[in-house]
Amino acid sequence: MMDEKKIIKEIKSGGGSKNFRILYDYYFDTLFHFIYRYVKSYDTAKEIAHDAFVKLWLHRHSLDETRSVRAYLFTICRNQLIKEFRRQIRNPLLRNYIDFTESLSVESKISCDFDTYVNAINDAAEHLSPRQREIFFLNRREGLPVQEIAERLSISEQVVRNQLSAATKKVKSVLMTMMSD
What's the Cα-to-Cα distance from 3 to each of 8, 38, 65, 82, 124, rounded to whole Å? Predict the structure, then answer.
């Protein structure tokens, strides 16, 4: 068992890096798994957990030895998760990921985190024609509506709809094949 109070006192008094490493090694995995459970992205979970320790280090002189470091770190992570969710809500690719994972049957036992999904979408998009890929990513990544894509590419809205429909069917078919392998 680790003596948090002693470690915090030593970090505050300048004997920081060794003791900080003890805290990092002790709490990182727990924080990472807590965050990953919500964001389903290895990279994002790792980044948020690292940021929590950076904030702990930056505010080490104001730490209170009578308070739990664990609670402090989890509070930082919770706040970072809220910020991340607010950022992700505006991400059109996340909406597509949610739709995709909801369409998976329970029997298929396919596990798909967000990073895997994004990589699979990029791989599946390689099967599209260059124009379909461009339209698909303008719609799915940038969240542009059909009308704006048509204006940007100087083509009719119907052509955009047709290309988007064909691209979506191809990507979904390739994606389902990739995920079930």
Answer: 9, 30, 10, 30, 51
Burial (CB count within 10 angstroms: exposed 0-12, middle 13-18, buried 19+), residue 24 = middle
Q: What is the pLDDT along the chain (181 residues), one digit of tens a residue?
A: 567 788 888 887 776 678 888 888 989 999 999 999 888 888 889 999 999 989 988 888 888 887 888 888 999 999 999 888 877 766 666 666 666 666 655 444 445 566 777 777 788 888 888 898 899 888 887 888 889 999 999 999 899 999 988 888 888 777 777 666 5
Residue 111 tokens read as 């596990």
> CA dist 34 to 43, 111, 139, Å?
14, 18, 32
What is the rounded CA–CA span in Å between residue 144 and residue 112? 25
91, 87, 111: which is closest to 100 by C-alpha? Answer: 111
Angle, CA 129 vertex, CA 100 and CA 172 arms, to 5°: 15
Taking the whole predicted model, whether its pTM rises above 0.85 is answered as: no
Kindly list the distances between the CA atom of residue 109 and the CA atoms of 14, 40, 68, 95, 177, in Å, as whole numbers in the listed order: 51, 16, 39, 21, 14
Report the distance separating Cα 169 and Cα 175, nearest Å.
10
